[in-house]
Amino acid sequence: MHSATDFMDIDYNVHIGYNDFRTQIMSVEDLLYRFNETDATNSVTLFRKPTQAQSSRIIESVLLGMPQPMLYIDDTNEDWVVIEGAEHMYAYYAFCKKGLRLSSLYFKKDQYEGRSFSELSPLAQNNILNTKITVNVLNPGLTPHERFGIYMCLKSRIDATSLQWCRTKIFGKEYQWIRNLAKGVSEARRTESVESMICYMLVGKYYQLFLEGGRLTQIDAAANQIMEQVYNSGFEGGIADDFRRVLNDFRGQKRNYIIQPKPVALYLSVLYNLSEDKVKRNRVDKFFNDEGRQYYSLLRKEDSAEAFCRAIEEIITKIR
Description:
Blueprint: E1 21-27, H1 28-37, H2 41-44, H3 52-63, E2 71-74, E3 81-84, H4 86-97, H5 109-112, H6 122-129, E4 132-138, H7 144-154, H8 160-171, H9 173-185, H10 192-205, H11 219-233, H12 236-252, H13 261-273, H14 278-301, H15 305-319
Parallel strand pairs: 2-4
Antiparallel strand pairs: 1-4, 2-3
Helix pairs in contact: 3-4, 7-8, 8-10, 9-10, 9-12, 10-11, 10-13, 13-14, 13-15, 14-15
């Protein structure tokens, strides 16, 4: 068992500025060439793949001469990762390189419906390939913690799926043990919510870290920092075993922990910190049945690690 003091060297300072980005004007053809050259097409594969109709409407907007949204790219590693705008990049790639046929067009149905890129006139092909895109590129040099924060600032949606995608792209091996644990305890094919829940349980395990200091830390930022420290310290194996026992027991009670990762992580964190004593488990269940709703409501409004950890401390104090 490791105490909160194991992670007291967590650094929450950030150093992000204008110079961490560079702006380039690129044509669709330039972008396709760049992604082919760096084998970055895997980075365009979305966690939410657009439909044929959605991609077709994006291509239709190009054919109409509409300005295209800017792309945000991470250039930290060898391959480019599309942070935001991947739906558009995917549409350009699918239509120009993979034979996508246009469907469900709004304005150009009689002219382009059902056609692929190779079936367009040379003029239309050139108009697409020469379309200019503003690309903001994130330069190398930032920490994973800082890069994750930038990803979250740019994402149009912040949910378990977005969090999983960002953590997988940024943390890689540091995050893999959490993904493996989630796959081992979940019966669902997709484990994004369980992965988020495990990240919040990490914060709950070290909840004493966040009870003093007078500052607010976004809970996902706290989870990422602890996740890195756990991996770098070699603690992930023991923690995974402890969490697996709690999660499997919870699953055995036929409870649904897929929908609400944070409230369930609160319950499991309290249980974990009370050493899973059976007598206390009954008291934990009764407490959450009677008073849990007020804490769930709080967590919907508050996304700080401090609020999450104060709730754990309050509940443990009441149960004891």
